[in-house]
Write a structure and sequence with these properties.
318 residues, mainly alpha, 3 domains
């Protein structure tokens, strides 16, 4: 595990994980096995002549990749090896095959956008935002209700496996209802209020029914989903103000080869490149811009977007 973390993760990625887990970077209360392993690995890699005098940096801040790995492995050793809580199985081959059969067998009007019959497979590619909306508003509810275990009647407080699945069904349907209400072609105050009621219940049940998400930091999109209620009252139906250009931009960014660079490195490259582009455009529009550069303005502004994308690709592929 130590070698894998060191070979596949950069220091910035390790720092991001430590911060995301809310761990202290101070090397205190570390398992003795990890501290001994840290010293042994340091003695093998160091070029110092007095390598026998190397000591574990007790009480210091984790500053190197190996020290950050010590913090992460020490946290993992404190966690249980197995969980007694029932974890709802998701993404199994049987579940995927069931959803694919629903997509194939369901007859829809001509105005409903079609979905790939091999949804979930690599050949199908990534779904667009509108296709995810169709999937969550039409096909997934049918697939969940058709599954055999949900056809029975359970009590919401039932702690059996079947009871957990029934609660997961209610939780998922609440999120689907919010999606359907938010994407209606007409909007009323009562529909907006219903949307606001479905979103919090769905988010609370998410952390209760799926224990593996409890330790994670709440995502910004979860918080942003609650503010859509205000936008529904201010601007009306989502279809009149949703941002498909940004969805297309996300699709372009997803196709860029990142060479498995994780953490904040990729995001920092995007921000820096966009800031440089904006500064260059602003400088070209200044009245005191040199005349020689002004003559090249038209030839610079057109291929600028292409140059930016090429620059980001070169940075990420290194």
């Amino acid at each position: 595990m130590w070698t894998r973390l060191h070979n596949q993760s950069k220091k910035s990625a390790l720092e991001s994980i430590v911060k995301g887990l809310g761990l202290s970077r101070k090397l205190e209360n570390i398992d003795e096995r990890l501290s001994s392993l840290y010293v042994a690995r340091a003695m093998k890699t160091t070029k110092r002549k007095n390598k026998d005098q190397l000591e574990y940096p007790q009480g210091q801040e984790a500053a190197t990749s190996h020290q950050l790995i010590v913090v992460l492995l020490n946290w993992r050793l404190c966690q249980p090896l197995s969980s007694d809580a029932y974890i709802i199985p998701t993404g199994t081959p049987g579940t995927l095959a069931h959803i694919q059969s629903v997509i194939r067998e369901t007859s829809t009007p001509s105005w409903v956008n079609s979905l790939p019959k091999n949804f979930g497979e690599a050949k199908a590619g990534s779904l667009k935002a509108d296709e995810w909306r169709t999937l969550s508003a039409l096909y997934l509810p049918i697939a969940l209700v058709r599954s055999g275990v949900t056809m029975m009647v359970f009590h919401p407080v039932d702690d059996t496996d079947a009871g957990h699945l029934f609660q997961a069904l209610n939780h998922t349907m609440a999120l689907f209802q919010a999606t359907i209400l938010g994407c209606r072609y007409t909007m009323t105050a009562s529909r907006a209020r219903a949307y606001r009621e479905y979103i919090p219940s769905g988010m609370q049940d998410l952390r209760r029914l799926f224990p593996h998400v409890r330790e994670g930091i709440p995502r910004p999109n979860v918080h942003a989903a609650g503010h859509i209620y205000d936008f529904l009252l201010l601007f009306g139906p989502v279809l009149s103000w949703w941002c498909f250009p940004f969805e297309r931009l996300i699709g372009v960014l997803q196709k860029v080869n990142t060479n498995d660079h994780r953490g904040v490195e990729m995001e920092a490259t995007i921000v820096k490149t966009m800031a440089r582009t904006a500064n260059l455009r602003r400088w070209l529009r200044r009245p005191d811009c040199p005349a020689a550069v002004q003559q090249l303005k038209s030839s610079l502004t057109k291929p600028l977007s292409l140059l930016v994308c090429r620059k980001m690709t070169m940075n990420w592929s290194r």
